[in-house]
Amino acid sequence: MDSLPLTVVAGYLGAGKTTLINQMLANNDGQRLALLVNDFGEINIDAKLVESQDSDTINLSNGCVCCTLADDFSSALAQIEGMSDRFDRIIVEMSGIGEPDKVVEWVRNSAFILDGIVVLADATTILDWADNRYAGPLICRQLSAADLILLTHTDLVDGETVNEVNEWLTELSAAPVLQGPVSMPMIIGISRTNGDDLEWTHTHLEDHHSASARVSEPISIDHLEKWLARRPKQVIRVKGILRTTTDPCVTTILQVCGTREEITEGHAKHDDGPGLVVAIATIDLDKLDLDHWLAEIGDRQLAHDH
Question: Does an H or E element contain 164, and which?
Fold first, then answer.
């Protein structure tokens, strides 16, 4: 079985992490999520979704599970690893004063694949907090570790303030900045079926384009890396299951979240069927540009407009 992708959700106090976790539970986009959170008491889970609960775990009817990180991060992940066949993805919610880059090395030495650090920034307070002599350095480290930044509470400030915060974030970090609310595929990526295919479900927010390409023949890692280097900056998420010339009998898993690109070895493949790449881009990228980029690596398939 291939390694489970793990996404870290971080951000300073009040940035909106709990709201985002609640959205994931209510709209998991068909993915079975294992959510590791700091405090059950802050998560407002719809009672109709709860199948069972004990002191450390809440099982939901949509296939998701919520576990508390209150006692020990490593033991919570070990618990999830023991039932990894039940899930498609792990989401770890950091505390407001947590430093997400400290999770990276732990994940790299585990059975999971780090599939993005998403850091939330509150548009109403982030600039003031950044000037704070105590909180400022921590906030800048959180944002600098991000692969994707989600700007929240933009409805509470005017357009000039949003632009000012965007400019500051762009100077601080190379990560793409998305303005909330965003649809779940932008945050939790693309689901995979039990086979060597990718599953796609429609969402209702018009904030992105998606398209896919079949990759019929094995490709070289060098070609794959050069293709990724030409990725338009508006392409936020990519998931691929491919064969490479290095070992065509083993699948290669490609996962992209913002600035993070991961190419890892998957499981043994017993047929020569085509691979598939799915990409998600923000709507400011012309659909033809997304199609042309995908055509460089495979045969274009039907695009899905969201």
Answer: helix 159-172
pLDDT in tens, 287-306: 899 999 999 987 755 445 54
Cβ–Cβ < 8 Å for 170, 177? yes
Residue 88 and residue 238: Cα distance in Å, rounded?
A: 16
With a CB cutoff of 8 Å and minimum separation 6, the contacts of 247 are 265
Bridge-partner residues for 34, per DSSP?
65, 90
Residues 119, 148: Cα–Cα separation, whole Å: 6
Is residue 59 within 8 Å of residue 65, measured between CB atoms?
yes
Over range 117-131, report the average pLDDT: 95
Fold entry, domain 4-185: Rossmann fold (3.40.50)
- The amino acid at residue 200 is W
CA-based R_g, the chain, Å: 19
Residue 287 CA to its chain's centroid (Å): 22
Report the alpha-carbon distance of residue 154 to residue 157 in Å, rounded. 6
Return the SS3 of 196.
coil
Question: Which residues, including other chains, have CB under 8 Å from residue 101's CB and lie 6 or more apart?
Answer: 117, 141, 145
Terminal Cα-to-Cα distance of the chain (whole angstroms): 31
Query: How far, in Å, CA of 143 to CA of 126, rounded?
Result: 11
State which CATH number among 3.30.1220.10, 3.50.50.60, 1.10.238.10, 1.20.1090.10 fits the domain covering 199-305: 3.30.1220.10
Q: CATH 3.30.1220.10 in the chain, residues?
A: 199-305
Domain with CATH 3.40.50.300 in the chain: 4-185
| Residue pLDDT, tens place only, 143-197 | 999 999 999 999 999 999 999 999 999 999 999 999 988 888 888 776 554 444 5
